[in-house]
Amino acid sequence: MSAQQMHTPTADGVARAARKIADLLPKTPLLEAEIGGARIWLKAESLQPIGSFKIRGAWHRMSDLSEAERARGVVGVSSGNHAQGVAWAAQRLGITATIVMPIDAPQVKIDATRSYGAGVVLYDRPGGEDRDEVARRLIGQSGATLVHAFADPWVIEGQGSMGLEIAAQMAARGFDGPTRIVCPCGGGGMTAGLALACPEAAIVPVEPEGWDDVKRSLAAGEILTVGKDAPTTACDALQTPATRPINFAVLQARVPFGLMVTAAEVRAAQRWAIATLHLVLEPGGAAALAAALAGKVDLDGRTAIVLSGGNTDSAAFAKVLSSQD
Q1: Which of 48, 93, 195, 213 has the maximal Cβ count within 10 Å?
Q2: Is 99 in a helix, a strand, or coil?
Q3: Cα separation of 10 and 157, whole Å?
Q4: Is the whole model's pTM more than 0.85, yes or no?
Protein backbone atom coordinates (compact mmCIF):
# COMPACT_ATOMS: atom_id res chain seq x y z
CA MET A 1 0.00 0.00 0.00
CA SER A 2 1.39 3.40 -0.98
CA ALA A 3 1.89 6.27 1.46
CA GLN A 4 -0.91 8.11 -0.31
CA GLN A 5 -3.33 5.21 0.20
CA MET A 6 -2.38 5.01 3.88
CA HIS A 7 -2.81 8.71 4.56
CA THR A 8 -6.29 10.10 5.25
CA PRO A 9 -6.94 13.85 5.17
CA THR A 10 -7.89 15.15 8.63
CA ALA A 11 -8.45 18.39 10.51
CA ASP A 12 -5.17 17.75 12.36
CA GLY A 13 -3.46 17.38 9.00
CA VAL A 14 -4.90 20.73 7.90
CA ALA A 15 -3.53 22.34 11.06
CA ARG A 16 -0.07 20.85 10.42
CA ALA A 17 -0.19 22.04 6.80
CA ALA A 18 -1.14 25.53 7.98
CA ARG A 19 1.89 25.67 10.29
CA LYS A 20 4.22 24.58 7.48
CA ILE A 21 2.74 27.09 5.06
CA ALA A 22 2.87 29.93 7.61
CA ASP A 23 6.63 29.36 7.87
CA LEU A 24 6.96 29.79 4.11
CA LEU A 25 4.32 32.23 2.87
CA PRO A 26 2.70 35.38 4.25
CA LYS A 27 -1.06 35.19 4.71
CA THR A 28 -2.99 36.41 1.70
CA PRO A 29 -5.23 39.43 2.41
CA LEU A 30 -8.80 38.98 3.62
CA LEU A 31 -10.57 41.94 2.06
CA GLU A 32 -13.86 43.46 3.17
CA ALA A 33 -16.44 44.65 0.66
CA GLU A 34 -20.20 44.86 0.24
CA ILE A 35 -22.68 43.27 -2.10
CA GLY A 36 -26.22 44.60 -1.86
CA GLY A 37 -25.46 46.22 1.49
CA ALA A 38 -24.14 42.99 3.04
CA ARG A 39 -20.55 42.73 4.25
CA ILE A 40 -18.52 40.01 2.54
CA TRP A 41 -15.02 38.70 3.19
CA LEU A 42 -12.83 38.02 0.18
CA LYS A 43 -9.77 35.77 0.45
CA ALA A 44 -7.35 37.03 -2.20
CA GLU A 45 -5.50 33.83 -3.12
CA SER A 46 -4.83 35.41 -6.51
CA LEU A 47 -2.01 37.25 -4.71
CA GLN A 48 -0.04 34.09 -3.89
CA PRO A 49 3.49 33.98 -5.41
CA ILE A 50 2.20 31.77 -8.24
CA GLY A 51 -1.11 33.64 -8.53
CA SER A 52 -3.19 30.78 -7.10
CA PHE A 53 -4.06 28.86 -3.91
CA LYS A 54 -2.56 25.72 -5.45
CA ILE A 55 0.80 26.54 -3.92
CA ARG A 56 -0.58 25.41 -0.55
CA GLY A 57 -1.32 21.79 -1.38
CA ALA A 58 1.74 21.39 -3.57
CA TRP A 59 4.05 22.57 -0.80
CA HIS A 60 2.45 20.42 1.90
CA ARG A 61 2.64 17.33 -0.31
CA MET A 62 6.13 17.77 -1.67
CA SER A 63 7.80 18.92 1.52
CA ASP A 64 6.65 15.64 3.11
CA LEU A 65 8.36 13.48 0.48
CA SER A 66 11.19 11.26 1.67
CA GLU A 67 14.72 11.79 0.38
CA ALA A 68 14.34 8.74 -1.85
CA GLU A 69 11.07 10.07 -3.28
CA ARG A 70 12.61 13.49 -3.88
CA ALA A 71 15.47 11.88 -5.78
CA ARG A 72 13.01 10.21 -8.18
CA GLY A 73 11.13 13.43 -8.86
CA VAL A 74 7.43 14.19 -9.18
CA VAL A 75 4.77 14.22 -11.88
CA GLY A 76 1.76 16.52 -11.83
CA VAL A 77 -1.32 16.84 -14.05
CA SER A 78 -2.82 20.29 -14.41
CA SER A 79 -4.20 22.93 -16.75
CA GLY A 80 -1.91 25.46 -15.13
CA ASN A 81 -2.37 26.55 -11.53
CA HIS A 82 -1.49 23.27 -9.83
CA ALA A 83 1.26 22.96 -12.44
CA GLN A 84 2.80 26.19 -11.22
CA GLY A 85 2.39 25.19 -7.58
CA VAL A 86 4.21 21.90 -8.15
CA ALA A 87 6.90 23.59 -10.26
CA TRP A 88 7.45 26.33 -7.67
CA ALA A 89 7.71 23.84 -4.81
CA ALA A 90 9.99 21.56 -6.84
CA GLN A 91 12.35 24.43 -7.60
CA ARG A 92 12.42 25.40 -3.93
CA LEU A 93 13.06 21.81 -2.79
CA GLY A 94 15.49 20.85 -5.55
CA ILE A 95 13.18 18.21 -7.02
CA THR A 96 12.77 17.36 -10.70
CA ALA A 97 9.17 17.99 -11.81
CA THR A 98 7.31 17.03 -14.96
CA ILE A 99 3.82 18.40 -15.54
CA VAL A 100 1.26 16.93 -17.92
CA MET A 101 -0.70 19.88 -19.33
CA PRO A 102 -3.41 20.13 -22.01
CA ILE A 103 -2.45 21.62 -25.35
CA ASP A 104 -5.32 24.12 -24.96
CA ALA A 105 -4.16 25.41 -21.57
CA PRO A 106 -3.60 29.18 -21.51
CA GLN A 107 -0.12 29.88 -22.86
CA VAL A 108 0.58 32.17 -19.91
CA LYS A 109 0.21 29.17 -17.58
CA ILE A 110 2.39 26.88 -19.71
CA ASP A 111 5.10 29.53 -19.90
CA ALA A 112 4.94 30.23 -16.16
CA THR A 113 5.25 26.51 -15.35
CA ARG A 114 8.35 26.22 -17.50
CA SER A 115 9.80 29.37 -15.95
CA TYR A 116 10.05 27.56 -12.61
CA GLY A 117 12.20 24.87 -14.23
CA ALA A 118 9.59 22.12 -14.66
CA GLY A 119 9.34 19.99 -17.76
CA VAL A 120 6.00 20.18 -19.56
CA VAL A 121 4.43 17.30 -21.49
CA LEU A 122 1.39 18.38 -23.50
CA TYR A 123 -1.60 16.11 -24.12
CA ASP A 124 -4.56 16.47 -26.48
CA ARG A 125 -7.46 17.34 -24.16
CA PRO A 126 -9.80 18.41 -27.00
CA GLY A 127 -9.07 15.14 -28.79
CA GLY A 128 -9.92 13.07 -25.73
CA GLU A 129 -6.40 11.90 -24.81
CA ASP A 130 -6.27 10.51 -21.25
CA ARG A 131 -4.02 12.73 -19.13
CA ASP A 132 -3.87 10.19 -16.33
CA GLU A 133 -2.57 7.56 -18.75
CA VAL A 134 0.14 9.98 -19.89
CA ALA A 135 1.09 10.56 -16.24
CA ARG A 136 1.13 6.82 -15.48
CA ARG A 137 3.48 6.24 -18.41
CA LEU A 138 5.88 8.90 -17.16
CA ILE A 139 5.78 7.53 -13.61
CA GLY A 140 6.43 4.02 -14.91
CA GLN A 141 9.55 5.25 -16.66
CA SER A 142 11.02 7.22 -13.75
CA GLY A 143 9.45 5.97 -10.53
CA ALA A 144 8.37 9.54 -9.80
CA THR A 145 5.68 10.39 -7.25
CA LEU A 146 2.33 11.61 -8.56
CA VAL A 147 1.26 14.90 -7.00
CA HIS A 148 -2.41 14.90 -7.94
CA ALA A 149 -4.16 18.23 -8.36
CA PHE A 150 -7.01 17.36 -5.98
CA ALA A 151 -7.25 13.62 -5.17
CA ASP A 152 -4.31 13.60 -2.77
CA PRO A 153 -4.68 13.71 1.03
CA TRP A 154 -1.77 16.11 1.52
CA VAL A 155 -3.08 18.41 -1.22
CA ILE A 156 -6.53 18.44 0.40
CA GLU A 157 -5.01 19.33 3.77
CA GLY A 158 -2.81 22.01 2.26
CA GLN A 159 -5.72 23.73 0.53
CA GLY A 160 -7.67 23.60 3.80
CA SER A 161 -5.05 25.80 5.47
CA MET A 162 -6.78 28.70 3.78
CA GLY A 163 -9.85 28.14 5.94
CA LEU A 164 -7.85 28.43 9.15
CA GLU A 165 -6.37 31.68 7.87
CA ILE A 166 -9.82 33.08 7.08
CA ALA A 167 -11.12 32.26 10.57
CA ALA A 168 -8.06 33.76 12.27
CA GLN A 169 -8.17 36.92 10.16
CA MET A 170 -11.86 37.46 10.93
CA ALA A 171 -11.23 36.87 14.64
CA ALA A 172 -8.41 39.42 14.61
CA ARG A 173 -10.96 42.01 13.49
CA GLY A 174 -13.46 41.09 16.18
CA PHE A 175 -15.73 38.79 14.19
CA ASP A 176 -16.69 35.19 14.78
CA GLY A 177 -15.57 32.76 12.09
CA PRO A 178 -17.32 32.43 8.75
CA THR A 179 -20.84 31.03 8.61
CA ARG A 180 -20.12 29.88 5.06
CA ILE A 181 -17.21 29.81 2.65
CA VAL A 182 -18.03 30.01 -1.04
CA CYS A 183 -15.27 28.57 -3.21
CA PRO A 184 -14.55 27.77 -6.85
CA CYS A 185 -14.58 24.01 -7.41
CA GLY A 186 -12.94 21.77 -9.98
CA GLY A 187 -12.13 18.36 -8.54
CA GLY A 188 -13.00 19.25 -4.95
CA GLY A 189 -9.57 19.48 -3.32
CA MET A 190 -10.11 22.97 -1.91
CA THR A 191 -13.74 22.25 -1.04
CA ALA A 192 -12.79 19.15 0.95
CA GLY A 193 -9.92 20.93 2.67
CA LEU A 194 -12.11 23.84 3.73
CA ALA A 195 -14.74 21.42 5.03
CA LEU A 196 -12.11 19.79 7.27
CA ALA A 197 -10.68 23.14 8.37
CA CYS A 198 -13.96 24.88 9.20
CA PRO A 199 -16.53 22.28 10.30
CA GLU A 200 -18.84 24.97 11.73
CA ALA A 201 -19.10 26.75 8.36
CA ALA A 202 -21.20 25.73 5.38
CA ILE A 203 -18.86 25.13 2.43
CA VAL A 204 -20.43 26.03 -0.92
CA PRO A 205 -18.60 24.83 -4.06
CA VAL A 206 -19.23 26.73 -7.29
CA GLU A 207 -18.64 25.30 -10.77
CA PRO A 208 -19.01 26.67 -14.30
CA GLU A 209 -22.02 25.87 -16.44
CA GLY A 210 -21.82 22.40 -17.96
CA TRP A 211 -18.97 21.37 -15.64
CA ASP A 212 -21.07 21.05 -12.48
CA ASP A 213 -20.31 17.40 -11.78
CA VAL A 214 -19.68 18.00 -8.05
CA LYS A 215 -23.01 19.83 -7.71
CA ARG A 216 -24.82 16.97 -9.42
CA SER A 217 -22.87 14.32 -7.52
CA LEU A 218 -23.84 15.85 -4.18
CA ALA A 219 -27.49 15.88 -5.24
CA ALA A 220 -27.35 12.27 -6.49
CA GLY A 221 -25.32 10.87 -3.59
CA GLU A 222 -22.79 9.30 -5.95
CA ILE A 223 -19.93 10.47 -8.15
CA LEU A 224 -21.14 11.60 -11.55
CA THR A 225 -18.99 12.71 -14.46
CA VAL A 226 -19.20 15.73 -16.70
CA GLY A 227 -21.32 15.04 -19.78
CA LYS A 228 -19.62 14.16 -23.06
CA ASP A 229 -21.29 17.20 -24.61
CA ALA A 230 -19.91 19.60 -21.97
CA PRO A 231 -19.49 23.07 -23.47
CA THR A 232 -16.19 24.86 -23.76
CA THR A 233 -15.51 27.07 -20.77
CA ALA A 234 -13.12 29.91 -20.02
CA CYS A 235 -12.80 28.44 -16.50
CA ASP A 236 -9.95 26.13 -17.49
CA ALA A 237 -8.89 25.75 -13.84
CA LEU A 238 -12.28 24.17 -13.04
CA GLN A 239 -12.48 21.89 -16.07
CA THR A 240 -12.36 18.55 -14.22
CA PRO A 241 -14.30 15.53 -15.54
CA ALA A 242 -15.17 14.12 -12.10
CA THR A 243 -14.25 14.27 -8.45
CA ARG A 244 -12.59 11.26 -6.77
CA PRO A 245 -13.64 9.04 -3.84
CA ILE A 246 -11.15 10.61 -1.41
CA ASN A 247 -12.70 14.02 -2.05
CA PHE A 248 -16.29 12.85 -2.26
CA ALA A 249 -16.09 11.07 1.08
CA VAL A 250 -15.41 14.42 2.76
CA LEU A 251 -17.90 16.33 0.60
CA GLN A 252 -20.76 13.90 1.23
CA ALA A 253 -20.30 14.17 4.98
CA ARG A 254 -19.90 17.95 5.19
CA VAL A 255 -21.06 19.73 2.01
CA PRO A 256 -24.82 19.65 1.35
CA PHE A 257 -25.01 21.27 -2.09
CA GLY A 258 -23.15 23.02 -4.86
CA LEU A 259 -23.88 25.90 -7.22
CA MET A 260 -23.37 26.62 -10.91
CA VAL A 261 -22.57 29.93 -12.62
CA THR A 262 -22.82 31.01 -16.23
CA ALA A 263 -20.04 32.40 -18.38
CA ALA A 264 -21.69 35.83 -18.33
CA GLU A 265 -21.87 35.77 -14.52
CA VAL A 266 -18.19 34.92 -14.35
CA ARG A 267 -17.26 37.80 -16.66
CA ALA A 268 -19.36 40.17 -14.55
CA ALA A 269 -17.46 39.02 -11.47
CA GLN A 270 -14.12 39.61 -13.16
CA ARG A 271 -15.17 43.15 -14.04
CA TRP A 272 -16.47 43.77 -10.50
CA ALA A 273 -13.21 42.55 -8.98
CA ILE A 274 -11.03 44.87 -11.04
CA ALA A 275 -13.34 47.85 -10.51
CA THR A 276 -14.01 47.32 -6.80
CA LEU A 277 -10.98 45.44 -5.46
CA HIS A 278 -8.38 46.36 -8.09
CA LEU A 279 -7.68 42.65 -8.53
CA VAL A 280 -7.23 40.71 -11.74
CA LEU A 281 -9.02 37.34 -11.53
CA GLU A 282 -8.93 34.53 -14.02
CA PRO A 283 -12.37 33.11 -14.93
CA GLY A 284 -12.15 30.10 -12.61
CA GLY A 285 -10.85 32.29 -9.83
CA ALA A 286 -13.96 34.47 -10.07
CA ALA A 287 -16.55 31.67 -9.97
CA ALA A 288 -17.41 31.95 -6.27
CA LEU A 289 -17.66 35.73 -6.48
CA ALA A 290 -19.93 35.28 -9.51
CA ALA A 291 -22.36 33.21 -7.44
CA ALA A 292 -22.47 35.89 -4.74
CA LEU A 293 -22.98 38.75 -7.18
CA ALA A 294 -25.74 36.80 -8.96
CA GLY A 295 -27.65 36.36 -5.71
CA LYS A 296 -27.20 32.58 -5.63
CA VAL A 297 -25.82 32.43 -2.09
CA ASP A 298 -26.86 33.97 1.22
CA LEU A 299 -24.72 36.89 2.41
CA ASP A 300 -25.09 37.40 6.15
CA GLY A 301 -22.07 39.52 7.03
CA ARG A 302 -19.91 36.47 7.79
CA THR A 303 -19.81 34.93 4.34
CA ALA A 304 -16.28 34.40 2.99
CA ILE A 305 -15.60 34.12 -0.72
CA VAL A 306 -12.45 32.61 -2.17
CA LEU A 307 -10.80 34.45 -5.07
CA SER A 308 -8.74 31.44 -6.03
CA GLY A 309 -6.53 32.61 -8.90
CA GLY A 310 -5.45 35.43 -11.15
CA ASN A 311 -3.51 33.71 -13.94
CA THR A 312 -5.02 35.08 -17.12
CA ASP A 313 -3.37 36.61 -20.15
CA SER A 314 -3.83 40.27 -20.96
CA ALA A 315 -5.64 39.69 -24.26
CA ALA A 316 -8.27 37.43 -22.69
CA PHE A 317 -8.76 39.81 -19.79
CA ALA A 318 -9.10 42.78 -22.12
CA LYS A 319 -11.94 40.99 -23.93
CA VAL A 320 -13.72 40.45 -20.62
CA LEU A 321 -13.40 44.12 -19.73
CA SER A 322 -14.74 45.23 -23.10
CA SER A 323 -17.65 42.79 -23.21
CA GLN A 324 -21.12 44.21 -22.60
CA ASP A 325 -22.97 41.23 -21.12
Answers
A1: 195
A2: strand
A3: 7
A4: yes
